[in-house]
Each structure stands twice: as structure tokens, then as C-alpha cells.
Amino acid sequence: TPSTHRSRRSSRCPLGPELRLPYINHYDNGIREADRVIGEILEALRPGGYLKNARVVVTADHGEHVFERPQGWRGHGYSLYQEGIHIPLLYWDTRGHCPAPAELADQTDIAPTLLAELGLEPPHCWQGRSLFESPGRASVHVEHVHYRQGEAPLHMEAFLCRTDQGLIKSLRHRQRGRAMQESIFCLSSDPDEVNDLNGRL
Questions:
Q1: Quick one: three-class SS letters along the chain?
Q2: How confident is the model at residue 96 (pLDDT cuts 50, 70, 90)?
Q3: Cβ atoms of residues 132 and 121 within 8 Å
Q4: How far is residue 114 CA from its own chain's centroid?
Q5: Which residues, 6+ apart, have CB-to-CB distance to 3 below 8 Å?
Q6: Cβ(172)–Cβ(181) below 8 Å
Q7: How far is the C-alpha of 151 from the C-alpha of 131, rounded, in Å?
Q8: 39, 40, 41, 47 alpha-carbon torsion, rounded to 10°
Q9: Phi, psi of 120 (to 5 degrees)
Q10: pLDDT (tens digit, 9 = 90+) per residue, 75-92?
Q11: How does pLDDT run across 144-191, given as a tens digit for each residue?
């Protein structure tokens, strides 16, 4: 469907309702195109037998804001809400031997997982661990520093952990050493991060 190339407009400028749908269509079209290209790559590998004993990993470096927040954000790098950090991670063992993965994981777990599948130990300096290690992680930490010309860097931090109350997420943004945002969400009951439990939990 008709789309608007999202890079032509500053992500800080508000978009009127007439431009939001074309923008969303542009994003959705990108997802469909990525899906098509990944399929073509796999189909090109199949005839040569490369997928008979293979591990295929498909992931992303970040998510994208597409008007989920009242600020009307589009793009990425402004926050660590789930739409920006909850990314696809597809792990396919063509032998069909994939055990259940850990419930909590981050991108640093991909390389240690592949090494473990090859029977190799990761270097001690690596942060991640195998996705299939049991027990899995109790928590994950995501950190990002957003730089913009003429402004002090914005330091963002998200911490997720499994508790008796569900999956809890702490979100902190700081600039010039001053707290810009401190929020706590229960992702199990509030996946859209609307109900801030800071001060109550």
C-alpha cells in the first residue's frame, strides 16, 4: 500500500494523521521485504545441501517506535521502551534438536550459543551465555547512550527480571547526572508499559 519514505522527515517533527498511515505502511513494507529476502537466501542455500546440518540465526539490532507513545516518537534511540528493545531472535537448528530457549536473553547471548553448539568455550571476557543453558538468566540489562549535537548525552538503562509478581522492568533515563525518567513496569500484566509502578513496587 502507499508509503512515505520515513527518512525524509525529522523524527522529532510531528506527523499529521494523513501521514501516519503511509509511514506505518512504509515500516510494514520493510518487514515484508526482509521476510522475502530471508526466504530467498534460505532457498538459495537449500539446493547445495547447506541447510542439512545448520544453525540459522536471524535477529535485529533494535526495534522501532511507530507512534506507540504520546510523544509521537518514530524511529529509535529515544528510549528503552519495549518497542525499541524487544527484537526478533529466530534460531533454527535444521536437525530439529533445538531445546527450549531461556526466557530472558539479549544480543550478547547469540555468539556464546553458537560456540556452545560447536562445543567451544566462549572467552571469559564475553558477557553472554548460551540461550539453551539451564537455568537461564534471572535478569537482563540493556544500556544505551543517545548523542545529539549541541546536547549532553542521554544515558538510558533498562533492567528486566523475573519475580514472583511477573516480569518486572526498571527503566531509567539520565542526562547531566540528573534523572529524566525513573519508571517500573510489570510486563506480564502491562506489556504496553502504561502503568508506572515506581514508588508502589
A1: CCCCCHHHCCCCCCCCHHHHHHHHHHHHHHHHHHHHHHHHHHHHHCCCCCCCCCEEEEECCCCCEECCCCCCCEECCCCCCHHHHCCCEEEEECCCCCCCCCCCCCHHHHHHHHHHHCCCCCCCCCCCCCCCCCCCCCEEEEEEEECCCCCCCEEEEEEEEEECCEEEEEEEEEECCEEEEEEEEECCCCCCCCCCCCCCC
A2: confident
A3: no
A4: 19
A5: 22, 23, 25, 26, 29
A6: yes
A7: 38
A8: 110
A9: -110, 150
A10: 888 899 999 999 988 999
A11: 998 888 889 999 999 999 999 999 999 999 999 899 899 999 999 999
Amino acid present at 34: A
Taking the whole predicted model, whether its pTM rises above 0.85 is answered as no
Is residue 113 a contact partner of residue 132, using CB atoms and an 8 Å limit? Answer: yes
